[in-house]
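Example complex used in Figure S2.
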Amino acid sequence: MVDSRGQALSFEGIAAGIILLSAVGFALQVTAVTPLSPSTSSQHVENQIQSTSEGALDSAAERGVLADSVLYWNDSAGAFHDASPDVEHYQGVPSSGLAISDTLNRTFADRNVAYNLRIQYHTDEGLKTQQFVEQGRPSDHAVSASRMLVVHESDRLVEADGSEGPRLGDPGTGFFAPNLDNESLYNVLHVEVVAWRI
Amino acid sequence: MRGQTTLDFAIGVSIFLAVVFFTFGFLPGVLDPFDVAAEDNPTMADRTADNLAHGQLGSPDQPNVLDWYCTVEYFEGNASPANCSYEGQTLDERLALGVGGSANITITRNGSLSELLCWAPDATSEGEPGLETDCTGNDVTMLAIGDDRPGAQDTTIASRRVVSLYDQTVILEVVLW
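Predicted assembly (375 residues):
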């Protein structure tokens, strides 16, 4: 065995192969590629959800269903009509009587997008938040869109069947937001959608 | 013994080469998800949809609310009306996509082509104009314009907006390729 020096043995081939494969394995671990990994295409998806959220709010506001929806309040029970028991708001898919429900379902539910809706209102101590629709905890990729809505003392609550209820400004009418006592203005609401892919 | 390949050497080198070829064959596939076929198309689709929803068919001071007259005229394919904010007669002139760009624009009720809307002068029972999905009558305007969408094997970029048209919430979809 004069010339056995300098030769690769099968053991060395296996060792080199393991080193290469573990390098690839490490590279895969540090860049976990999932459908939600950040890339140009998932950024595009987030932009889409953001724009559709804004569009849904704009469109609902234009047709007047946004105001009807936030006024869909049961003033004797102190909760939204047909809200989930124990909480004042909707969990999961909102009641079909809600005016905005059709818009939201058509926009989001068919496209595997979950959303939360909340309403911020002004009080003497500052902004407070009323949950409206809650479908879970937003993911890291969630986007949000909001729209301002002014309610007046002459606006009426909406009954469960869609008919007109008592005026907001009438004494004894209960609503989640207080009356700011600024002439005919009742309160200024900020409706916010937080949407994310599921 | 001289000039011969030992069995041990042959096994070692072939295992090593097999792993090398496997690795180099496999690695490019790992980066595939990050690769968007046409880099600038997502932005372009987004801009086009924004341009339509906020400018050409609507107005900047009331975004996502489309003017029904301008919208119907847009899909009619005639010369642009004077009081609408788009110019030109063809889709290429209105969108300025550049050479080789193709576009398809639709307005649907829920985003699927089976619910494609059309504008009918006598949609309601009282003969009032409106939007409907049953597009069979005379002088209806299909709310779809542009080239036919390519098959599933080609890369397209879609951008959709939820807009209000004639007091209905509809979905405006722009497909570019």
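Chain A has a mean pLDDT of 81. The beta strands of chain A are 73-74, 79-80, 90-91, 113-123, 126-134, 143-152, 156-158, 164-167, 185-197.
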